[in-house]
């Protein structure tokens, strides 16, 4: 099947990570039976209690652990504008730098022998994943339950390799086939101490990336979907009882990197708001926006029109996208405090101005959510500097529309950085609090009940591109339902 001859429609209700079954891909590993469960103690006549106990202790030590994911990157559109984490894949384990995306549901990495993918990045050294070089890699076929629950297509025959296509909100896409292999992660074993742990994960081997994902500039090895659907990285580990479906990030925009941990955060405490149950994304109900002390007068359905209610919290998006009916009054109110500014537009979507005074002369913008949770976005977060005397607003007008023409509100890294953001999928709440992301947080080890400190990381990246790349990387990575019309 020639993908170029397909037509794609974007919509915002994620029915499934669009998986597409096409020609067979050759894969080194043989097809494996689904869910091979075999008890090590089945059929044993005498109960060897010692062995059972040892087995349980071993099992317990690997249950519901807290994981520390080393983080790098920043949220400055004029720098790299994305956050990435380091994970190990395969046997022997190799390191991969993957963008952290709470707006999508699948992990994928650039595949060895790919048709179209970045070869060299200005940011990190790229490592294509090579299933042939990993002794634990296995192919995932159409009869695998993982493939079938994300794929309703009739062409998916038993025995064929399960292929996937994911399209993101910025129009870029990845396409390839699914692989099952071992993932190696840093288990929190003490205060700022980690050991290693592993799990089995199904992920995409991306053989053809398009749009921004196919470009070399500032490329990373792939994207790690941290959404709440069953196919996401965290859901897969949780289904193996490796972790709880709860995680937190603290994206540091002052020095880069920050904290990304899986597990229950006990300190700092965060106030939470319910996740909207019908949404595939992490969506929450927004009630009002304040500019300084003034509440914006908005129509009641400004950010709650149609089926896709609420605002989306998405670490894979750099900026904040607002419907026009919200964007205009917000900008008018901010600019009312600075009538002297003369505005110009840069790259069609950025409102910029000359300014040499202090940033705190601009008002703080506060979003008000259910259960009186608020999110303050300070001028140093919503303004970014493109030249010594020139600043631009990070607020974006519209940007994404659903098929029904509804405009989405997306809170990206610009609003989420310098805060600890906690996603508790089990209890269906999300919350945050202002936090120093170069500092530390405390997580609970579920088995022992011990409380351990997890500190910030700042994975190094090459910053040589910072100035020349000016504004080119404004990613909007949220996946959308891909309805395929043949
Ligand atoms: C996974 O971790 C277990 C326990 O630490 C270890 O015995 C096993 O060898 C590891 N598996 C791989 C593939 O690294
Ligand atoms: C997701 O996983 C849960 C628990 O394993 C299961 O109950 C549920 O049916 C799954 N959902 C889908 C859509 O497969
Ligand atoms: C990030 O921090 C830098 C320096 O503190 C600031 O100039 C920039 O505006 C911030 N950007 C965002 C998107 O938060
Ligand atoms: C944040 O924490 C780091 C590391 O503990 C510290 O060096 C820095 O001064 C703190 N920043 C603020 C603003 O408190
Ligand atoms: C974080 O890493 C980046 C890239 O390697 C570097 O430019 C920056 O100075 C680092 N920040 C700190 C606080 O070390």
From TrEMBL:
Write down what this protein is called: Aspartic proteinase-like protein 2
What organism is recorded for this protein?
Camelina sativa
Show which residues constitute the signal peptide: 1-28
Q: Where is the Peptidase A1 domain?
A: 83-433
Record Pfam families:
TAXi_C (PF14541), TAXi_N (PF14543)
Q: Which family does it belong to?
A: Belongs to the peptidase A1 family.
Taxonomy of origin reads: Eukaryota, Viridiplantae, Streptophyta, Embryophyta, Tracheophyta
Gene3D superfamilies on file: Acid Proteases
Q: Could you tell me which PANTHER family the record lists for this protein?
A: ASPARTYL PROTEASES, EUKARYOTIC ASPARTYL PROTEASE FAMILY PROTEIN
**Keyword annotations for this protein?**
Aspartyl protease, Glycoprotein, Hydrolase, Protease, Signal
Concerning InterPro entries, the annotation shows: Aspartic_peptidase_A1, Aspartic_peptidase_AS, Pepsin-like_plant, PEPTIDASE_A1, Peptidase_aspartic_dom_sf, TAXi_C, TAXi_N
Is Metal-binding found in the keyword set? no
